[in-house]
Each structure stands twice: as structure tokens, then as C-alpha cells.
Amino acid sequence: MSKPGERVQRGTAISVERLVQRFGDNTVLAGIDLQLEAGQVLALLGPSGCGKTTLLKLLAGLLPVQPGMGSIRFGHNVVAGDGRFVPPEGRALGMVFQDYALWPHMTVGRNVSFALEMRGVSRRAAAPNVAQALETVGLAGFEQRQPSSLSGGQQQRVALARAIVARPQVLLFDEPLSNLDRELRENLCHEIGVLLRQMGTTAVYVTHDQDEAFALADQVAVMHGGRIHQLATPEQLMATPASTLVADFLKLGTLLSAAHVPPAWHAALPAGGADQHLFIPHAALSLAATQGDLRGTVMHQRLRQGRLLTQIVASEAPQGLMLATDSRLDTGRTVELALDWQRLRWLPQAA
Q: In this predicted structure, what is the pLDDT of residue 202?
């Protein structure tokens, strides 16, 4: 038995190579390559229409890989592409949907046992597994309840129990928490993360919420326009975004085009190309008690990830700089700012 907090690996590795998906003249996925180790959690993060749900459907077998358009492997087995197609029931996976997808005419127990019954397990033989799955998600004794009598959070727990009852090697999540309020979303996000580590199941989690992705995932794929623009750990994404697109989508700081970088700054910066942008992370700016590197005016503030993002306009940066603070600053207030030059980087435009 594993120790508390210790991760076991019962999942399978996932390999995606040169995956393309087109619907008519519309290219939804434009060549996806990724490797996910057994037992790891991958978040597909991006705006609506970036291709993340289509990629999830291809992994699930809900869409076929078109001939000559790449391949998907679970472990050493090709499940799609190269002339093969393994249907969803043959991929040893579980899936959790945004809308719960529970059958309203079935009890909670029947909803959960259905995944086992589809594999030929009798309802009676499935009962212990169903009870264990419900206990795992905090719904012990709910077998005879009707889905309609449950809250949204409880219904999603039932959907999660159904996904894990057959002990799948791969779990797929399609924005499962987007219909829930923030506090419940945060609680369930934490519980799902703990559960995945305890089970050791390989998981792919689709979301447009950065907080969810960073809280759950070992690796995050930032997607846009059918491509993965960066695949890295949350820490690597925060510290070293690969392009202006990644830095802007994750709202990591201020981006100044080379033409708008103040001439006086160039002496303190490495050379940057004309097509690059200067990236100023939030952590590179701080309030100065005395005269700082620049002076600016507070324009507005908004709360994000527990800190106040403050837009400050300075003569050196009239388009505005973003500063993260722990305290409220009055609009129109003049502030002195210190700049950590070592944190500034030039970033290329996304391809």
C-alpha cells in the first residue's frame, strides 16, 4: 500500500505524433506532438476554439484520426492512426464531462455500476466496487439516491465515481468544473488532484482556467489556433514563457514592442530584435519607498490569484505597466517603481 501523499503509477504513457484534424476546410489541429509519462497529469489550457476538446475526443476515441493525419499510442499500443482504430471501450479509459452526463432514470448506484456492467460484470458483483468508488469521492451510502436530488457538486462526484470505478489506466476530463461556483470548483479541483495522485492514473484535463490547470497538472500544454505553443510544468511556464502569446494568455506581465522600449533602457538590456517584445514579469516591478527607476500614475486595479493587478502609466511606458501588489492603491496616485533588470527578457512572437 502506498504511503499518504506518495504517488503510484498505474496509468499508461500517452504519445501523440503529428496529429492533424480537419473539418472541411477548417484545420482544428495543426500538427500536435506530445509525450505524457505514465501516471502524469496533463492540462490542455487555452481559449474556446483552440482545439483542446477536439484533441480530447481523439484521445477518447469519440472521433477517428483521419488517414495519414498522425497517430495516438497508449503505452506501446496504437489506438488511432496507422490504419488502426480502437473504440473507446477498448482503451481502458474513464471520462468526466462538463454536464455530468448522468442518466436521470437510474439511481446513483446504477449510474456508477453501468461502466462495469458494460464490461460484463453483473450488478451484484459490481456492488462492492461501486460502494468503494462512491466512498472515494465522498458519497458513501448514496447508491439509492436519484441524480435529481443531488447538488451540482454531488452530481459531478457521481460522474467522477463512474469514471474511476473500473480503475482505468487513463482518465479524461472535459472542463468538468466549469458549471460550478468558484468555492466548490476550488474544493473539487483540490480533491481531484489528490485522487489522481493516489490512483496513479494518467490524466488529461481540458480547461480554460489557468488556476485549475496549474493546481492539477504536472505538465500544461498552452494551446492556441490548433497548436501547442508551449508544453511545460506550471513553474516553467510562469518563469520562462516561450513567446509573447504564452505570456499574454497567462497574463504574466507587461509586453513592450521593441519600438516602444524607452531608449534609455537599452543600455541596461541585452540586444533585442526588431520583431521581439520586452517581457516585464509582474515580479520585476515593485513599489519603491524612495526615488525608483521610474514614476507612474495608478490607473486601476483588479483582483487576480489573490493579488491586486495594478495598471500604472509612466512617461517611459504610456501604454501601461502591470504591477502585482498586496495592497489597494488609489486611482490617480503617483508611485515610484523599482525595476529588477535581471528579470526582463526579450520574447519572440508566436509562430
A: 97
